[in-house]
Amino acid sequence: MKEHIPLFLHSISALLVRVVGASAAFFATTIIAREVSPEEAAPYFTIYSVLMICAAFSSCGLDNSLVRFIGRDKDVSVDVFDKSLFLSGFLSLLVASLVYLASEFISYELFAGKVPAEVVRMISPSIFFQTLISLSAFAFQGLGRYVLSVFFINIFINFILGLFVYFGLLKDSFELVLAYTLISGVCALFSVCAIIYAVLGYSRARVAWPALLSSCIPLWIVMAMSQVVNWSGQIFAGIYSPVVEVAQIAVAQRTASLIGFTLMAVNLVVAPKFSALFSGGDHLGLQKLAKSAILFGLVTALPITFMMIFYSGEIMLLYGDAYQSGGIYLTVFAVGHFVAACTGPVGYLLIMSGNESDLRNATIFAGLVAIMLTWFLAVKFGSIGVALGAAFAIAVQNIISLYYVKVRLGFNVVG
Fold first, then answer.
1. Between helices 209-240 and 243-256, what is the axis angle to 10°?
2. DSSP 3-state helix, strand, coil percentages of the chain (rounded to 5)?
3. Is the Cβ–Cβ distance between 296 and 7 less than 8 Å?
4. Closest CA to 48 of 115, 105, 108
5. Residues 6 or more apart from 264 whose CB is under 8 A from it?
6. C-alpha–C-alpha distance, residues 381 and 349, integer Å
7. What is the distance between the alpha carbons of residues 288 and 2, in angstroms, rounded to a whole number?
8. 319: helix, coil or strand?
9. Residues contacting residue 196 through CB under 8 Å, at least 6 positions apart
10. Nearest-CA neighbor of 156 among 122, 194, 188, 198?
């Protein structure tokens, strides 16, 4: 047990930061659900899912590459961040422009008018802003600055947006998206300035473009398809489900994601350490650290999962009377997220050990499952089919990654 103590101590501090981050997200979701009608909240939640997928695509996979390279050698921080900012910044501006120009198509052809075209146009600049925030947050994670990482990616926008809604300043989907875009722009500016200041003291060691691209290109697909897995259910709900059920599914999925936030807290600590241990050839230390991480994550995830399965209706009632009937969606998503939590930090193990291509393969398969299975179940069974397909895809991605860890690294993190 002694080898677990340092990880637990670091993870507890990271967990406290993650608790604040998760609380900010929970606060924003709760306030929006309670203060904004489901008919107005649903377009916001749906277009937010589109935003997350577009931002993940625009990152070029460089966010996790930042953790890998900076975690291994902090002197490359300036060079890696500059290169990442150049690539992702250009691509995110291109994607944002395309979404803006295609707003009428997205609104009427994809979502049958459930998401107004002006809402789509207003969210488009956030693709650029969210990409910058993500790059900065992951760079801070590589530096071991967990508080700033979580602050920019989880707390800043959610807390301010929630306050605006709480004080009655935002009442419809357009106002929500407008506020989100403005707040994310401010957050992007602050986060980029903060990371530039943080890396000033390091030397300007360089990483060759081929080395960076060979790492980020497999991760590019991984990040984009991971967001497809996470958000495809919400998008299919926006297409096939009644408006109230769209809001219920969005709230249930966001609530169930709290199951994995303890493992995310552990990942904040272990991801740079995985890179250092693997590059140093300490495979026994890598195995012990991975098993310690999953132990900590499971102990904290179990009670949360229990509550969400057996008291789903009561939890959904917290968001308002219109959401109580969506308790079944929370139960389904909770099971999917718990299975994912049981596999531990397998994705980070593959990334930090140079096996990005295996994670890419697992994520592509899970992404295809998410799209095809969720579409089929949505057409066949409606909203409950959306939840089942999305939850299954979340679990499958991590199970396949668990297999690749066993094959590539020679140990089973759950054994």
1. 140
2. 85, 0, 15
3. yes
4. 115
5. 18
6. 37
7. 11
8. coil
9. 81
10. 188
pLDDT per residue, tens digit, the chain (415 aa), is: 455 455 555 556 666 777 788 889 889 999 999 999 999 999 999 999 999 999 999 998 898 889 888 888 888 888 999 999 999 999 999 999 999 999 999 999 999 999 999 999 999 999 999 999 999 999 998 888 888 998 999 999 999 999 999 999 999 999 999 999 999 999 999 999 999 999 887 878 888 889 888 888 877 877 788 888 888 889 999 999 999 999 999 999 999 988 877 677 677 677 777 877 887 888 888 888 888 877 877 888 889 999 999 999 999 999 999 999 999 999 999 999 898 888 878 887 887 787 877 888 888 888 888 889 999 999 999 999 999 998 998 888 888 888 888 888 887 777 6
Pairwise CA distance, residues 228 & 394, whole Å: 10
- Cα–Cα distance measured from residue 71 to residue 276, given in angstroms and rounded to the nearest whole number: 7
Q: What three-state secondary structure class fits 208?
A: coil
Six-digit token string for 132: 């910058």
> Is the separation of the CB atoms in 274 and 355 below 8 Å?
no
Task: Please calculate the CA angle 145-151-156 and round it to the nearest 5 degrees.
Answer: 160
Q: Which amino acid is at 247?
A: A
